[in-house]
Every structure is written in C-alpha cells, then in structure tokens.
Amino acid sequence: MNYRVIKENDLFFLTDDKGNIPKENDYGLGLYTKDTRFLSKFDIKINGKDPILLSSSADENYEAEILLTNPHMEEDGKLILWRESVEIERKRLIYDGVLYETLKLKSYYPKPVDFEISVHVDADFTDMFIIRGFQYGEIGRRTGEKVTENSFDYFYKGADDVERATRVQWDRDAKSVDKDGSIAFDFHLNHGEVETVTFSVTPEIDGKSGTVIDPEKALQLLKTSYKEWERDTTKVQTDYKPLQRLVDRGIMDLRVLLTDIGHGAFPVAGLPWFGVPFGRDSLIAALQMLAFNPEIAKGTLLTMASQQGTKVDPWRDEQPGKIMHEIRYGELASTNQVPFTPYYGTIDATPLFLVLLSEYTKWTGDLSLVEQLKSNVDAALNWIDEYGDQDGDGFVEYHQESSKGIANQGWKDSGDSIVHRNGDYAETPIALSEVQGYVYQAKIGIAAIFEVQGKVEEANRLRHDAEKLKKLYDEKFWMEDQEFHAIALDKDKKQVGTLTTNPGHVLFAEMLDGPKASKVIEKLVSPSFFSGYGIRTMAEGEAGYNPMSYHDGSIWPHDNSMILLGMSKVNHQSDANTVISGLITAASHFEYDRLPELFCGYGSKKGKAVNYPVACSPQAWAAGTPLVFIQTILGLFPDSLNKVIHLSPQLLEEMNELKVDKIKVGEGHLSVHVRREAEETTVEIKENTTGYEVIQK
C-alpha cells in the first residue's frame, strides 16, 4: 500500500496516503513507540464524508504535508457543499516524543460556507509482534478513558505491569466530544478565509512522556537539528544530478533514522517495522557513513557494547561477548514471551562490531574509544574463538537454540536463503562465506590497533589467526569449476555451492589473492548476477533463483555497497562504477529518488526497476549506499594509524565533476575536487588539515 511515515528519535507515525489510520486496516497503521501502538485510529471527515486526496508528500522526512478537498454534497436537490470548495491541508511533525498535526481549512467558494470537520481517534496499545502476526500471548487490558472539553486520555495496564497512556489534545473549541473518540468542529468560512485546529498526541509510559509545546516552536527546533546535521556532514556536489539527488536523499534519510537510547546517536534499521537497534544493520549503516559523519559510528559502537552478551542463554541465543541482533521493548518482550530483550541470534554482528571499531579508528585515530571499549573488544574476540567456532574447525558458524529465534542467522536470514545447487536447504551448523571475511577483517584491524598500543604479542597472535583463516577459507570455500566461492559450508562441511553475493563481501576484507579476487568480481558483474540495475543476491539460473524473492535473486543496495567497497579496495574501479551506474538508474524508478531496502531482480530490459512489495523505505543501509558510491568513486581509504590517506578517483561516465568537502579524517578535514575535461581527469586537494600524506594511485 501507499503509506506515509514520519519519525523523530523513538516515535514514528504511520498512516495511509490520506494521512488516516482507518479503524480496520491490514497494514498496522498507527503511532508507535517502544514497539507499542499508542494510536490505532485517526481519521478525518467533512460533513461525515471522506475527503478526496489531492496530494501527499513526506519527502522532508521530519514533516508530512497532505492536501485534501471535499466531495460534492447534495441532499434532496439541496446543495450542502459544492465539490472542491474547501481545501484541507494536514501538516504533521514529531518533536520530543509528541506528534503534532494541524488541519488548515481554506474556502474557495464564492459565498460563505458552513461545514463540520470531525476527527476520530482510538488507542489499542497493541504490541508490534501481534500487529505483524508474528506472536500472540498474554496481554493486558485497557483500563479506561478520560474525556474533557479539549482532550482525550486512554489508559492501559500491560501484562508486564507497565502503565501506558495516550493523551490527545486540541486547541479549538469542539462542537461535540463523544466517548467513542469522535471530536467534531464547526467551521464558517468566507471566500479565501483560513482557520485551523491543531492536535497533539502524547504517548506516556509509566508516567513519563514528552512535553507539548507550541507546534511552530517544535518545527523550528526540529529544523535547527537538521541544519546541525547538515553542518556536521560531508558536503558533496556533482554535475550528475541523479547522483546528487540520491546522496542528498540518503543523508536526510539517515538523519531521520537516528535514535539515541542513551549512548549516542545511531541508525535504527528502517521504517516502518525496524525502528529499533539492530546489530548487523546499525553497524553496517554506520560503516557506510564513516566518510560523512564518523561520530555516528561511535554512538553505534557504544550502543552495541551496552547490550553485549554476558551469559549463556539459549532462549535468547546469547553467549558471553556476543553482539545483539535486535532489541524490542513491547509487552511481549517485557514478559519474556518473545526473546528479543535483546535477542542475539546473529552470527555476523560480533565480527562487524570489531570491523566498525577498526575502520572508525582508521578514519578518526580515536584510540580513546578503543580504550573505553577494551573489555568489549576482548569479549568479542573471545566469542569468535570460543563460541563462534562451535566445533573447532577454524570457521565461525551458527545454529539456532531459541525456540522462537531465527533459523538462518546471517544477513540473508529468511528460511530459504541457504540452498544447495540441487535445491535442498542447507542444515545447520552453517559457516557463511562473508562471515569468515568479517572475522579476518576484524582480526587484522584490531591487530593493527593493538600494535600501535604496544600490544605486540596480542597483535601477532591475531595476525597469525587471520592468516590461518585466509588459507583455510581458500581451501574449503573455493569452487574451482565455478571459479567462485561457495556461499557456505553445511553441517557436514560440504560446500553450499549456489552462486550468491555473499563471497563479494570478502573483497572488502582483502582476504582473497589478486587472481581470485578478479575472478569473483568478473562473475559478479556478469549477466547472471548483474541485472543492469544492480547485483542480484543470487545468480540467475541457480536452482533457488527467484527475482521476486526476498534473498534469492532480488537486489539489495546495501549488499551491493559492501561489494563496492571491496571492488574499490582492490582497485577494480571500473567494475564498481558499472554497478553504481546501474543502482543510480534503478533509484530513479522509486519514490523520492530513494533506494529501497530491496527490489526485484528482473533485468533492465523490462525498462523499469520492479518494486519488492513490502520493502522498508527509508531503510538505513539502503540510505547509506549512495554515501558508499562517493567513497568508492574517490577510492578513499584513510589510515590514521599510519597517518596516510589512500586516494584513487575514477569518475562515472555520466559525470564530469565531483566536489567532496570537509571529509573528517583524524583531527582535520580533507576536501577533494575531481574534474574531467577533454578525457583528462584532474584531482585537486582543496584542503588537507589532517597532517596525513595523501597517496594517489
């Protein structure tokens, strides 16, 4: 369905494109915080009739604007209201835990008109797991309502003994307020006259809530926070407008997805259903943002460290040192009916935590954060060796323990994603290709940090372990007949030989020797993988291939971005640019020039990228993908530990100029301008206050 969603920090509002939450809907529309729906009905009518939609936009992310008008109204031959006489504008925003919506009514009828606007509200306090049909269980009950002349309060006592409430307020005298949640207002307007009514909706949990302020002040404060975000973020200018729009959209989408639960801002996974901390998703999105705002990586690392596993708990798939997969805050989680408090069923978040820390350190030189996270780093490394490698074969593998957990625990976590070439599903324990790359990259990266800290013995041990893994991976995962790596090893240590993108992530780790890296890249940009719009998750022609599937032939922008970083790292810039150009073309087929979470893997011969029906949008690691485009085009990889910056720019064929200013590296900034004239490309370092040497390839 077409929906509109706005978010600020931990509160988001999801409606249909008219701005309504109809009482009965299958999509879970509502106002949510802490995985609970605090508003389950919110619609407007004019003289008891549904308005007609004119336009609907939420391209600003922090503010939505919806334009409606009245249908023609006549009764027994008597005119009630001529069609399109009244313009109804709905403007909404969220600030400091409060939703504000202003209805602005303007008459275009040549004579005075009288009409009624009614608003209908309700709150069911339903847990998100129940709304999405994933779980059912013991729940609480609504304990009452309170009605006044200008407010409605709904109260709920959960099975977790948490008291929840929703307060709906309005700033105009109402004609009537009914206990069923209907509020009616009379309007009398002359031609061109405008009147408004503003609603505020405030969720409350155990007596804690946001504070209602003047909505204009809330809007200004919100705009100020966005301006601060823009000020602190790397600036990009290019003559290739489709890329410019995509980067601008990505930066703004990432801002709306930022949340702070007490340890600094970090990106939640995506809207509408994944607006919570996710280990893998948040870590990868922060990794994508390093060239634009490395402070987000710091907030992400501190948030993940705060929830690091401390014990063996099969119900949560928890083990000491393990980084979480996902945390939820609703009634079912609080009563332990679901294991997401947090849930640890992810095989890749722990090595990715170490990868992000090592890459963050390369960008910033911030060894103080490494010191702050010392115990977390040690615990994560210990988890990799002790718990990650369950059978001591040298590979990190997963196996679900929780009865309500996730079976496949890599990023392709659907039940059909790890499939043999004969169509059989692989059985766990499963060792994924990309996870071995993450482990290698983590150990090499942390070893470099340890060496700078004077921990030479620990650094040497990690490098030895990494080299051993590199050799073992080459022996066990390489498929000579396909000149490609298997996606995984199954419980019997047999190769799961289906051709997928997973081995492409290993390129970024630089774990492959040159010839094999080239073979992997050659396959990934071949027609079986590359659709013209991006690299498919699974190659066309494989037994499990399905262009409409979630993980078996669809195209995920973030998946492509991880491959792009690797291509650039190993100096395959032309291949990387081919993929980037395809994804930019695909983005033009989606609303707001926005790359969605995923889209179908049909080839570009169809003439248009095909939507995946339930993709999140905006989604953090999809929004971060255009930022990776810029880093990849520049071939930019700093190393603050050795005080050098590697740079190897190659412009897309469609562009002739790229200016990237105020890239934060170390304690300074780098600004790079790349220009192509008459087939000659020039690279100009406009600013370098880092004190580091720039090495151009």
From TrEMBL:
Ranges where the Putative glycogen debranching enzyme N-terminal domain occurs: 6-198
Gene3D superfamilies, per database record: 1.50.10.10
Which residue numbers delimit the Mannosylglycerate hydrolase MGH1-like glycoside hydrolase domain? 281-587
- What InterPro entries does the record point to? 6-hairpin_glycosidase_sf (IPR008928), 6hp_glycosidase-like_sf (IPR012341), GDE_N_bis (IPR032856), MGH1-like_GH (IPR054491)
Protein name, entry field: Glycogen debranching enzyme
Q: Species name for this entry?
A: Fictibacillus halophilus
